[in-house]
Design brief:
Layout: E1 3-11, H1 16-30, E2 34-41, E3 49-57, E4 69-74, H2 77-83, E5 87-96, E6 111-114, H3 116-122, H4 129-141, H5 146-156, H6 162-180, H7 183-188, E7 199-202, E8 205-208
């Protein structure tokens, strides 16, 4: 079964879970793939470690938990230190370069940084760095299409914030394309093809369409 395992991690208040939900909805509802989503939190919601795990596949996912991530997105140093060892040897590491110092060289050839917080602040709201990271992840990995991601953002962000979040998404997408250019096609070679139907699970719930 051709599938892609993704982990997004950071600390509470960065919108980690929403970022995962956007990617999951985009891939399942709008790109027609099978997706599972699980999430975990630290003892406190804000300021503690949290992560979301997705499996994106062209066939039904029989086991919803990650074995080793193909794509790791980290938005804090703690998240990098905790989860980097669980990235596949040929996996893709995406990181917030102002908050994360990448240790070692094991993934140096597939490590892509972005100043997501700074780009969000340029738009006037630091908290939309998660939408910047979603755009960056979309551009670098191709795990979902930009059109699907934009639709999912409109569905999931708070009312009245869709324009701002879409602008943040576009900033992340454009940054990835402009900085990394030709390297992106290599990363996108592992993305699964579209499935004929979809399943999206969050916290154990199942929705079929």
């Amino acid at each position: 079964m051709n599938s892609t395992e993704i982990r997004i991690a950071g600390f509470g208040g960065q919108g980690v879970i929403l970022a995962g939900m956007i990617l999951g909805r985009a891939a399942s509802i709008y790109d027609g793939k099978y997706v599972t989503l699980t999430q975990s939190f630290g003892p406190e919601a804000r300021g503690s470690a949290c992560s979301v795990q997705l499996i994106v596949s062209q066939q039904p996912v029989l086991y919803p938990y990650l074995t080793r991530a193909d794509i790791l997105v980290v938005m804090s140093q703690e998240a990098h230190e905790r989860f980097a060892a669980g990235l596949m040897p040929d996996g893709v590491l995406l990181y917030e370069e102002d908050l994360v110092r990448v240790n070692g060289t094991a993934h140096a050839g597939k490590a892509f940084g972005i100043p997501a917080t700074h780009l969000a602040e340029e738009l006037g709201r630091k908290l939309i760095l998660n939408a910047v990271m979603v755009g960056f992840t979309t551009g670098i990995t191709g795990v979902t299409s930009p059109k699907a991601a934009r639709n999912a953002i409109r569905d999931l962000v708070p009312p009245g914030t869709d324009a701002l979040n879409l602008a943040a998404f576009d900033k992340g997408l454009e940054f990835g394309l402009n900085r990394y250019g030709s390297a992106i096609q290599t990363q996108q070679a592992t993305v699964p093809e579209e499935a004929s139907s979809m399943t999206f699970r969050a916290n154990g719930s199942k929705h079929d369409s």
